[in-house]
Amino acid sequence: MIQRLFAHREAVLGVVLVVVMLLFGALNPSFFSAAHLFGVARSAVVLGIMALGVMTVLITNGIDISVPAIGVVSMYLTTVTLNAIEFQGTVLLAILLGCLIGAVLGLVNGVLVAWLRLPALIVTIGTLTLYRGGLLAFVGTERIRELPAQMASFGQLSLLSLSSGGRVASLSVTVLIWILLAIALSLLLKRTWWGRYLYAIGDNQEAAERLGVNADRTRISAFVLSGLLAGLAGIFYASMNRAADPSTLIGFEMSVLAAVVVGGANVTGGRGTVLGTVLGVFLITAVGNSLVLVGIPSAWQQVFVGGFLLIGVVMPAFRERRQRIKRGKVVGD
Amino acid sequence: MESRFGPRSHTWSLLVLLVALTVVLSVLAPNTFPTIANLQSMAVQIAPLGLLALCIAITFLIGGIDLSCVNVANGSAVVAALTMNALAPSFGTGGATVIGVLAGLLTGLAAGLLNGTVIAILRVHPIPTTLGTSAVFLGILTGVTGGSTVYGQGTLGAISTTTVALLPLTFWVFLIAVAVLWVVTQRTQFGFRLYAIGESAKVARFGRTNVERDQIATYLISGLLAATVGLLLFAGLNAANVSFGSSYLTQALLIAVVAGMNPYGGSGRISMVILAAIVAQELQTGLNMILGGWSGAAFASDFAWGVLLIAILGFSRWLARRSVRRRRVEATEDLAQAEPSHGASLNR
Which of A64, A122, A325, B110 could form a cystine bridge with A57, CB 3.0-4.6 A? Predict the structure, then answer.
């Protein structure tokens, strides 16, 4: 029973997450304060929303490195546009615009990968530099502190406020939106044809095509979703920080990828669950945000991100290697 | 013309591109471009980029990729600098420099060994592996140096200023690296095996190739090349920092792709990296001339690199597909002429 439970990545991750949290809590009791936990949840949102999109792409045997650039472009362009027309209305327009910009940029990635059959990694490394360079060269390099009023206040909306010891800890409303998005994506992946097609082309494109799946269209849709979610995450990032900075989120792709891979998605496609990704995001954020609490300088954070990424790929590889040796298969892959 | 290393036409189009760019730039800037000083400064800039492109190219050959090369380069530079500074009081600057350089090269080899072992023995996909090790190296370096620049003893400055037969010494290092890799990949059994592994690791295993050993050797070469880049950059600047050359990865990928290396492995000529690196540097020079003193010039050239990378990949893909289609049509026609009765069904 226990062995079967541990065959699931999600169960292992859940246990690791609890152990890590208890460890941090033992080293510094303020880890379990509402303020810190809500802070972790809040800073997990941007990573979490981007990770949902990247996981979808990974399922199709692709990879999307360009999400932070898409997020930054969407947040900066939206802010610049709305400020230019002195828009003071609902935040929904900002969100819509951000998603639209993200989806268009994702579409570019998808078309290049699906129609030109270029390797997704090289395409998205190219578009990463292209999007960011284009934004900084042609739109602006200045950090904008004056967001449209609704956009700035949206990021501070709180779902639940607890006051303890004179300090008010509030759970951001964006956390709820992220969790709702995760549930929606999970249902889409499990209960719709589109979701099953994603796994099918990721596992074996040829077989999926013979069953009548339009692999190109499905692959493009995954990249569009990834771009759209990255665009949304960009808007959230701007509203939570009350500023739009075009040179932020550099190197963030590493954390996104680490979270997704730790969550059980496989770069060779066909694998990945929403629950695993969400747990991976929580693990990465909880560790990254709490290093300072236990006295490790935040400069070392990258080591943990890379370490998680490596552990995420090496662990299943170890198991497969053991099985390969047990079966006596020396040659086959 | 097809050889087992890839289409020959690619070499010719690169040569034409190189000559055309040289002519265009010389006509546009007759006083500044075709001067020895300018060409020498271009050669100094080509060397590190070209060597990084070799890291990508040699790993492309076996169907892998080394995304950690830039961070390995910086890591070797930082290790070399720290070693030199630590040993200079007791060994004197000369001895400390030698040990520091060796330590830098060893760092590169160690990184290559780590990448190679995880990829070959555990059969983990090279993309997450090298991204992961890259992040780990970056984190360790940031932690050790606190993100600040490490200055050296100034003993290696001569390497970046010396010229041998009109070419800077650093460019000679690049030329020698290409020459050695050219001989290794095209004239030795090891090179033959690399192409075989890139084509299909599975088939290579059936051919009793020790795939794991050759894969590890390839990542060792890549690590050594990256360390060389780090040491060359360190020699030129007498300083090492974890964030040097952050846009190098895109450019190195671009050069490897322009050189005709197949990212899926098994074809491409290492020697073409030289032409591709010169073409890339000429494009950069041209961009600098056009953009001039504009404040966004650095970002605009990032943008241009991204566009170029995708455009060139797309173009070569389109060319390859077209030639496959043409060959298929020709083969069908030949068959149709030889056996008219079968022609109809083959022509559908």
Answer: A64
